[in-house]
Specification:
single chain, 294 residues, mainly beta, 6-stranded mixed beta sheet, 5-stranded antiparallel beta sheet, 1 helix, 21 strands, 46% strand, globular
């Protein structure tokens, strides 16, 4: 499928085709009907519409000459072609109590005061239903469900539908109205077990792909003598019997993606091998509904 990247550093969104070609960028300018403040997570519904989580400034009226703004969450909605559709106001998430929570900060008018709706630096996750009629935000240990107008529909659980339950090394599957359906996996390195799962995707047939942080290492002697500048123990997990060989040691690291049925039965496991510079340079960040790993 297509790949969507939310780039907070460059303040833009990019869409790539399955073969890696850039389809388009979404970058606001002075004439844009939307502004990016601090974009983070991104989601796409079944029709290809793009949903982008961001923060939004709103000036507080009647603030007695002070520069005072509210800072709250919003979701920018774009068409499959990247055209702006609308903003959805999520200010009900983390609403501050009174003006005592105002802090000095840079505002659209320069230095002033801001009333943040919760900690703007906290990690948040975004998901949408296939129809786009429901928006889900994972905030700490709860999920808040919103309708298309930003009204809160429900608060529940630890994760949304088949998303990864990081704290318990498992997946919790909920219905759209917040009822717990099932729990998938447990801590461990064996097939069907999970170690700090952090990404999950649901395929069209309901199968679930899970990317966790389990790491498997394999060491082998290369037959070449170790150079004096090379460390004696290049990895803390290196077996003791290899230390005195005097030979260069090759390390390979294996990561995995596991595929579960909708009922939680393990269907398959895909192993990814990283070696050489790949071990340090590459980081697994996402899995698609068809099992591709990025």
């Amino acid at each position: 499928g297509n790949l969507y990247i939310s780039d907070a550093e460059l303040n833009r969104v990019q869409k790539f085709s399955p073969d890696g070609r850039l389809a388009f960028k979404i970058e606001p300018d002075e004439k844009s009907p939307f502004k990016f403040t601090s974009i983070s997570d991104i989601a796409v519904d079944g029709e290809g519409r793009i949903y982008l989580l961001d923060w939004k400034f709103e000036k507080v009226k009647g603030s007695s000459g002070q520069i005072l703004y509210r800072l709250f969450l919003c979701v920018h909605v774009f068409s499959p072609e990247g055209e702006f559709i609308r903003d959805i106001d999520l200010r009900r998430l983390g609403e501050p109590k009174g003006l005592s929570g105002a802090v000095p900060a840079v505002t659209p008018e320069g230095m002033g005061f801001v009333l943040p709706h919760g900690d703007p630096k906290r990690e948040l996750r975004l998901a949408v239903s296939r129809s786009g009629e429901r928006i889900f935000v994972l905030d700490s240990n709860r999920v808040i469900a919103f309708d298309g107008k930003g009204e809160v529909l429900n608060r529940f659980g630890r994760e949304i539908v088949s998303a990864s339950d990081i704290a318990a090394d498992r997946l919790l599957k909920y219905s759209l109205d917040g009822k717990l359906i099932s729990s998938i996996g447990r801590y461990g390195y064996e097939r069907g077990e999970l170690v700090d799962p952090f990404r999950a995707a649901i395929s069209p047939d309901g199968s679930i792909y899970v990317l966790d942080r389990a790491e498997f290492k394999r060491f082998s002697l290369t037959g070449f003598k170790r150079r004096a500048a090379e460390p004696l123990r290049p990895d803390p997990d290196l077996p003791e019997e290899m230390l005195g060989s005097g030979m260069r040691i090759e390390k390979a690291v294996f990561r995995r993606v596991q595929k579960f049925s909708p009922d939680g039965e393990l269907l398959s496991q895909i192993t990814i091998r990283l070696e050489g510079e790949e071990v340090e340079r590459f980081e697994l960040v996402a899995v698609s509904p068809t099992g591709e790993v990025y």
